[in-house]
Amino acid sequence: MQEIPRFARDDKKMKIGEVEVHIEGAGAETIVMIHGWPDSYRLWDATVEALKGKFRCVRFTFPGFDRAHARRARDIEEFSSFVKRVIEQVSPGKPVILLLHDWGCVYGYQFYVRNPQLVSKIIGTDIGDPASVRRELTIRTALMVLAYQIPLAFAWMIGGKIGDAIVRSVAKGIRCPTDPATMHSGMAYPYFLMWFAGSRGLRPQFREFKPAVPMFYIYAKRKPFMFHTQTWLDWLTSRPGNKVQGFDTGHWVMSADPAGFTGAVAGWLAAA
């Protein structure tokens, strides 16, 4: 068996490569929280506060989203390898719960597909199965997606102050609640991989996501289009133990309604 490398750690955080992993709370189960664009591990502050009494809460800033991280694109395979190392360190021999949002869903679902034995439950927020979305994409929705994703892909390629400005402009346009001062073009590499990386990017690596473990899917109702299909929702709700719940908020449900979000998550976990 290959030896798992040891990493510098203390009671509340550890470092795996260039990424700081924060660990709070106590409990028999571990929740690994993965955010999306253009956020950091701080997206989960209220969630951790609500759950850390009963769960070990593990979170980190998405690799490449911290200015201190190397500015380069990480594809799904590299990201999955990183998350596997995290889980092997924080929960050796026991699967974890995944709590995901935005690109955290895209990458997190694909991690699960590649490593199902490491996951016990999944909570996905506002992004469904990307493969089914792509199959059923309408022209209207495709145009709206392109309107914000292509500028972000170019922001990654341009970089510097101009790239940063594009990222902040797009975030403002879609009413992102994250502090603009923390945003930079290095966060936009998933969009570059999606549209311009060809055979090295995300699109060829997508595998259909139909989890065999219990899943709670939370989505925002107040947005111009959905990031899931009714076909996938119907499949999800047909399986015992799964749940779907819509919130009358925008995309960042945990920020717009922190009490409702954490209450729903805690309630489902207790029932599950």
What does this entry show, briefly?
The protein is of the alpha/beta class and 272 residues long. The chain has helices spanning 45-51, 76-90, 103-114, 130-135, 139-158, 160-173, 189-196, 230-237, 253-256, 258-271; strands spanning 13-16, 19-24, 29-34, 55-60, 96-101, 119-125, 215-220, 243-247. It has a domain at 13-138 and 211-271: Alpha/Beta hydrolase fold, catalytic domain (Rossmann fold, 3-Layer(aba) Sandwich), CATH 3.40.50.1820.
- The CATH first-level class of one domain comes to Alpha Beta
Intertermini distance: 34 Å
| Strand order of the biggest β-sheet | 1-2-4-3-5-6-7-8
Shape: globular
Structural class: alpha/beta
Question: What do these coordinates show?
Answer:
With 272 residues, the chain is of the alpha/beta class. It has a domain at 13-138 and 211-271: Alpha/Beta hydrolase fold, catalytic domain (Rossmann fold). The protein has helices at residues 45-51, 76-90, 103-114, 130-135, 139-158, 160-173, 189-196, 230-237, 253-256, 258-271; strands at residues 13-16, 19-24, 29-34, 55-60, 96-101, 119-125, 215-220, 243-247. It has an 8-stranded mixed beta sheet with strand order 1-2-4-3-5-6-7-8, sandwiched between helices. Helix 3 (103-114) links the parallel strand 5 and strand 6 (119-125). The longest helix has 20 residues, at 139-158. The chain is globular. Residues 1-10 have low confidence and may be disordered.
